[in-house]
Fold this sequence. Notes:
Blueprint: E1 3-14, H1 53-65, E2 69-70, E3 73-74, E4 77-80, E5 90-93, E6 100-109, E7 112-125, E8 129-132, E9 137-140, E10 147-153, H2 160-176, E11 189-199, E12 209-212, H3 217-236, E13 244-249, E14 254-260, E15 270-271, E16 278-279, H4 282-290, H5 296-307, H6 311-318, H7 321-333, H8 337-354, H9 359-362, H10 366-378, H11 383-396, H12 400-407, H13 415-428, H14 430-437, H15 442-454, H16 461-471
Parallel strand pairs: 12-13
Antiparallel strand pairs: 1-10, 1-11, 2-6, 3-16, 4-5, 4-15, 6-7, 7-10, 8-9, 11-12, 13-14
Helix pairs in contact: 2-3, 5-6, 6-8, 7-8, 7-10, 10-11, 13-15, 13-16, 14-15, 15-16
Amino acid sequence: MTYETVIGLEVHLQLKTESKAFCGCSTDFGAPPNTQVCPVCLGFPGSLPVLNRQALILAAKVAISLNCQIAKLIRFDRKNYYYPDLPKAYQISQYSQPLSQHGCLPVLVDGKEKRIKITRVHLEEDTGKLFHQSSYSLIDFNRCGIPLLEIVSEPDINSPDEAYMYLRSLKSVLEYIDVSDCNMEEGSLRCDANISIRKAGSKELGVKTEIKNMNSFRAVKTALEYEEKRQIESLEKGERIVQETRLYDADSGITESMRSKEEAHDYRYFPEPDLVPFNFEDAFLKDIENRMPELPLALKKRLMAEYSISDYDARCIVGDKNMALYFEKCVSIYKKPKEIANWLMGDISAYIKEHDLTINDLDLKTEHFVGMLKMIDSGLISGKIAKSLLIDMIQTKKDPCALVKEKGLEQISDEGEIENIVKEVILENPKSVGDLKSGKENAIMFLVGKVMAKTKGKANPKKVNEMLRKKI
């Protein structure tokens, strides 16, 4: 029997505000435990919440960027449950009248655009954080009350790979509109996943499980792959899938049962009595829309049209907001976008990946990078030398001209010197010369390589190729 996987994701995003959602406490990360708290975020009797205007603006930016319908009437609710890191024993959230609903996010899946529907985007407050020791637990309430946005997708995702691509696309949008630092390690971006399995072609959803405790997009993908396999194997054995919450263990790569899954009625939602419902003014939303930056999809289309780069190059560049900014800054002073894209997607991206960095971490000045490309154009250095020069530029922060002089990397411009080396190579490799004469074109690359080796990469390979053919 064939099965279909159905996945929905709940992303929790800490918004980039200086103070908390309903009080004036700082949101700075890394402060000593329990030093950024007050009677409001700790839920002391008699304390009253006041909504953070900036949190509302950032939440509206997210809703607009995800094509959501923003509600005319906004209301907050109390979500009641007890947990040690929730001092009020309830969370100020939204239930019946959320900030926004019915959005979508375009995601590239197998080269085709798929629109993942967004159920809702709503504003709430974060909880504190537990630190579990061997025989006791500690609580830090600094995170309690930080403005949190919940972005809930429809069950439109059909594989762990799709889930991974959705999260990557969502994070890219959130970075472009600058509403959060999206740092999963610091907990400012977290994801819970709901997954179920059904018979292929069936319209009825299977019994879902929720997976928690995933600290990276890769972990979300791995956890979903395990849970997908576990549920299919259970169904094949005739076992019943239980609706529950499961925790992902990154060390073992498996999910384990945590508790039975709660339903909405378990939380006894009711309207938050200390925050009155209010309407968004049209002018307020219009002002936010007018300030929205260019989003990744629109930017990708513009780069392709304006600079004639490929869909693949444009997609890779806009996948990182800072990479896109760097690309356009380079193009503004060096009108060869394809060459810039090739280096960004090739050697620079490889260095970034190998050293677990970002384009900003490299601190590679655009004038230095472009200066190196101009040196290739002028014939001062070869492309091969440029590859090693790039690494030196990144590691020393020095100007490429200074490095070329310092290391003696200038390309040999004396044709007589190159001609003598070409003659040596021809005499030393009679078999390859014969192969070339008999029509074996690959032989020329071997001979060019020999010349380049003797000149330590300082000869112009194009000139070497021409000279070898002329002599032979």
